[in-house]
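Late entry, evening session. Most of the bench is empty. Finally got around to the prediction I had been postponing all week. Sequence below, unchanged from the version circulated by S.P.
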Amino acid sequence: MNQKFMLLYSVIAIFLVFSGLIIVFILPQTSNSVPGFPFKITGGTLIEINRENHTGIIWGQSFEIKITQEFNTSIEKEHFSIHVLNFPTSGILVMGLMETEKVSIQGSLSCKLDLSGRISRNRIITITKPPEDQAKITFLAMGDTQGFTKLYSEMIQNSNTLGNNFILHLGDMTASGSVDSFETFKNLSKVSEIPIFTTPGNHDIKLSNSTAYYEKFFGKSEYSFLYNGYLFISLNSSSGFYSENSFIFLSSLLESFPTTPKVIFTHIPIFDPRLDKDHDLLNETQSTKLLTLLNNTNVKAVISGHIHYFNHTLMNGIHFITSGGGGAYLYEAPEDGGLHHYTEVTINVITDEFTINPVPLMKKTQPTDVFISKENISRVISIEDLLSEFTLTYGNSSFQNQYDNWRANGSYIGIKISDLVETVGGMSEDQWLSVRAWDGLVSNYSYMVVYPNSSWYEIQGDMILAFSYNDQIVPDYQDGYRVVFLPLDGSYSNEDCKNTSLPNEGWYIYPSAGFRWIKYVQSLTIVEEG
């Protein structure tokens, strides 16, 4: 018996040893904490950390942020500074601080926590912003600014005087999703006095083909927050469809909050409210699946952008709102909702009544000059210069986009870009042409594209800077100036783009012929590297 007990004890001891190894080596790997930053964040995303200085930056994505100490650490001679951004600081409540710790207000949407001393595991610091009006929620929604910053800035200025609770940006903040364009958008957002909750659009993942850049600046692409009894849910539709994880995420929230009224905000609409149009999710089966999922779940509204106009459709008790008038060119006539705008939404939380008003904005006409430069040589060319000094090139063309749809079919008039480049000395074979648009998009073209040999010319045709489309001339031509290719068959396909791209340009940067047809051209610059 003793030997049996000894054997049993030995087995238990061995089990405990291996269990200990599992605890030591596996749990830290599966923890949400970041090495050197022993806190788990809910209600926001840790977007930056400096381990040497023991500082972190949280981007707020709710009205309650919890900071949980995940394991014991002694910082008696050190401190952690946590900066919380995009979180309203007027009237905030902070719980869980020790006597030696403090919170300091840095601005209307910024505060800093200075944490010091010994912190025990599972200690929770909570920062909460209670609603000031228990009877209603008011917010603004805008989508598809796509780098046109003036209308976005105007909305923010209006929001600072209207007493709204927050802003929803419905995606396509940028034209291409470049780091520079995200930085520009975030800098513009800093003047806001209320939180801005974002969701990514297809243009925001254009260059990276993922939400990696977006999340670096604005945190998780799918998240939710409670405000005044309503649950707001961001869903990531930037790729044109929802991942399986998106459906799991949404289903979990619908099950966890069965009676809570909900508002979903996303970029691409579940369905296109226009007759015979299909600017919605790429997968019709997903649209049907999502609409079925929303039945009897107390979803009150679905707000989206992507279609550059305004629409409000009430279906099965759900408000479907499209607000894509943030600055990009419009898809419809004014009488059909085609207006630059943002949408003001007020919810009576007692009656669940929605008041939905589009607020028109006037888009300023872009300048009609083009800046051309090479090293110390530069020139500003006006529409009058183009018409009087250069040989005009005519042609019919269209391009294929990343979804294999054909766009912008019509008649173009422009100037060969090689002729424009020659006004500042031309290009050498190792130089590149960098084309920048007013919305911040940049596209680079090799010497082979600007000065094609016979085989490339047979595929792409003339490369022109178009100032006229279907008899509309800049500034009435809304996309102009625009880079246009005029192949002999009148169709610039994705295959054409691929066959006239070097390994580090064009198709290999973004697999779409449309990426080369850059619009709103502001400048042409000859550079040493693409």
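Two things to note before I forget:
The CA atoms of residues 329 and 478 lie 7 Å apart.
The chain has eleven helices and 30 strands.
Will write this up properly tomorrow.
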